[in-house]
Amino acid sequence: MRVAPEIVLTGEEHAELSKLVRSKLSSVRLVQRARIVLLAADGMQNKDIAQELSVGRVQVSRWRERYAQSRLAGIERDLPRGAPPTKVDVARLVELTTQTKPAAATHWSTRTMAAELGVSAASVSRHWRANGLKPHIVRGFKVSRDPQFVEKLEDIVGLYMSPPEHALVLCCDEKSQVQALDRTQPGLPLKKGRAETMTHDYKRNGTTTLFAALNVLDGRVIGQCQQHHTHVEWLKFTRCATFRR
User: What is the pTM of this model?
Assistant: First the structure.
């Protein structure tokens, strides 16, 4: 049978606890704990103290034992709640994020990194923010060598900024072959305060040509795969896409 520890107070300790109970600056929790200790010092049992203060017996037993072990310091601070915090190897987290990539993926996510380090996804996200890392963001770049680049850019931007009335604008992307991961220029790695960079174009690879169109009215994507890349296949696709609208 478990016996509650006996509480014996000195005159100074009794005066200190009584002062806490009377003080209007003490927190409600601290006042309640001080009353538990004072009643325990008067020889009352835990069940009687619980009934007197309208609290649980477990709570009375907890703070009675805490005071017996650490005196006033034992009731001044709250007990730790939840599981103990998991220590994160921040140096390894930063190294994996900036220098490596997970299997079958283009970048680390909070969940894949959490599984790799054995921590929570929230911890990974917190340390990424603290170190200025955003592996999900990739900025594209490509220095154009077209001497008429400025004129073409102005024409295209002008269509978006001030489109002509009763006009159908078709935007075609010339890169139609299957995408490969080899870019035409080496990119800059991910680091603190800077996203990973890569060129918008890539080295061609494969023989299948993909034609695709987006219907902005309903969000449907229309696509076809062709074995060749000539005007015949392009016209065939445009007629199909127009019919399916």
Answer: 0.38
